[in-house]
Amino acid sequence: MGTIPDPGAHADHDRDEELPAKHARRTDAVERRSNFDFQRTLAFWGSIFFVEGSVLFTIGSVALYPDLNAELDAEFKKKAWVDYSFMIGAWCFTIGNYFIYYLVINAKHEDSLQDDEQDVISDPRWVSFPVCEAGHLGAASNLVGAVFYNINTMHGLWPKGGVRTTQEFDLWYVMTGVLGSAFFVGGAVCEGEHNGWRTLDLGEWNPGRSKQALPKIMSVLNLLGGMLFLTAYAVDYNYYADNHEHVQRWLVATPFTVGSVFFFVSSWIAMWMWNCLLYTSPSPRDS
């Protein structure tokens, strides 16, 4: 007489086999969610540092206007309103740009992803040799530009007896400022190329119709901001602007102020874009 198979035993066996698979899928989903949250957090703080830096740049730029600058008669007041604002703003830009650079160099190219693969950072890199790709070059250029701004703004805090000659001023203030701005201009151009900004189709510039519209607009704002900063630094060569009040007002204070506002708007757009992605899921499988 044969043994009658127990259907319940087969069901228990199947469940035992399914448990490890379910646990593995759940673990994989948690890892993808954790990695996504980490990348999203870096993007969030990057935009926060950009906003803070641009606000500080704006404060320092407004204080450069001759009429207001004359009210800052004490040396410590000028340092507080101008030098410290630009210095801390530059550090904010450096931190924010490094966060973006880190995300860019660790991002996988869409063509290299499998259908069921998530773009996650499994083996993070902290620095990377530049590759011939517009997004990568833009992030690297912006980071280098921010470092030059750090060197530039630290100059203003050197004690008396430090930078005093015209040659030292042109080297440590004008040149570093021009180079930092030039790298920012180059970074904006690369970002624009990465986002396909060479188009006359108005629909591509309409945020309501194209997801790439806001990145294009940000690239234009960053380009204008970098060009205005470059102008403000260049005209102060050999203390030229300091010796001509109208030049100080219209070719230094105004470009710095307007450029800072452009940077602020671009940073605010980045914050808004992050907020729009806040409630999205990195993968339908993680829902």
Structure report:
With about 290 residues, the protein is mostly helical. Helix content is about 70%, strand content about 0%. The chain contains seven helices and no strands. The protein has helices at about 5-60, 65-70, 75-105, 135-155, 165-195, 215-235, 245-275. Helix 1 (about 5-60) packs antiparallel against helix 3 (about 75-105), helix 5 (about 165-195) packs antiparallel against helix 6 and helix 6 (about 215-235) packs antiparallel against helix 7 (about 245-275). The radius of gyration is 26 Å and the shape is globular. The relative contact order is 0.12.
Annotate the secondary structure layout.
Blueprint (H helix, E strand, L loop, with lengths): L6 H56 L3 H6 L3 H31 L28 H22 L10 H29 L18 H22 L10 H32 L11
In summary, what is this structure?
The protein has 287 residues and is mostly helical. The protein has 7 helices and no strands.
Gyration radius, in Å: 26 Å
Terminal CA distance reads 51 Å
Helicity range:
55-70%
Strand count: 0
Rounded average pLDDT: 81
- The run of helices and strands is HHHHHHH
- Low-confidence stretches are 111-118, 278-287
Shape by Cα distribution: globular
Secondary-structure class:
mainly alpha
Strand content: under 5%
Largest sheet: none
Helical segment count: 7
Features:
single chain; 287 residues; disordered C terminus; mainly alpha
